[in-house]
Automatic annotation (TrEMBL):
It comes from Cylindrotheca closterium. The keyword RNA-binding applies. PROSITE patterns: RRM. This is RRM domain-containing protein. GO terms for molecular function: RNA binding. Keywords: RNA-binding.
Length: 142
C-alpha cells in the first residue's frame, strides 16, 4: 500500500485530509472509527516518533472519494476526540515535511532499517493494519 504523503497525486485529488491535535491515546483503530462514518477509507497514516515510542500528534486519512473527505472536514474540524479538540483540514504538500526528521537521508539507507525490513516478513503493526483493512472491507460489504 502506498503512503498517503508519498504520492503527490493523492494530495491534489482532494481525498486526503490532515488530522491534527491527536491525544496520545489515539491509535489507527480509533482514528479509523472516527472517520469511517464519512465514507470508505483507502488508507490511514499516523506518523510515529520512534525515539519516544509514541505518535507525533497528527495523522493523515485518505478517502476513496473527495466528497467524503470534505464531509469529514466539515463535521470533524473542531470536534472532540478522546478529550482533545482536533483540527481537520485538507492535506497539503507542505505538511509532508512534518513526517521526516532526517530530510537529507533516505530511511532505508541505514543498516538498521534494512535488516529490520529486508526479511520480507510483516511486522505486527503491518499485520494489524492489513487485518483492519480487511475487516473494514467486510463491514462495508455487509
Amino acid at each position: 500500500m502506498s503512503s498517503i504523503t508519498a504520492d503527490p497525486s493523492i494530495l491534489s485529488s482532494k481525498r486526503a485530509i490532515y488530522v491534527g491535535g491527536l491525544a496520545k491515546g489515539v491509535n489507527p483503530q480509533i482514528l479509523r472509527a472516527a472517520m469511517i462514518p464519512f465514507g470508505n477509507i483507502k488508507s490511514l497514516d499516523i506518523p510515529m516518533n520512534y525515539s519516544e515510542g509514541t505518535h507525533r500528534g497528527f495523522g493523515f486519512v485518505e478517502f476513496e472519494d473527495a466528497e467524503d473527505a470534505s464531509e469529514a472536514i466539515f463535521n470533524m474540524d473542531g470536534a472532540d476526540l478522546m478529550g482533545r479538540t482536533i483540527s481537520v483540514d485538507m492535506a497539503q504538500a507542505n505538511q509532508l515535511s512534518k513526517l521526516s526528521n532526517t530530510r537529507t537521508q533516505a530511511i532505508w539507507s541505514s543498516d538498521e532499517w534494512f535488516q529490520q525490513h529486508a526479511s520480507g516478513e510483516m511486522t505486527a503493526e503491518e499485520k494489524e493494519k492489513l487485518n483492519q483493512q480487511n475487516e473494514d472491507q467486510t463491514e462495508l460489504r455487509n
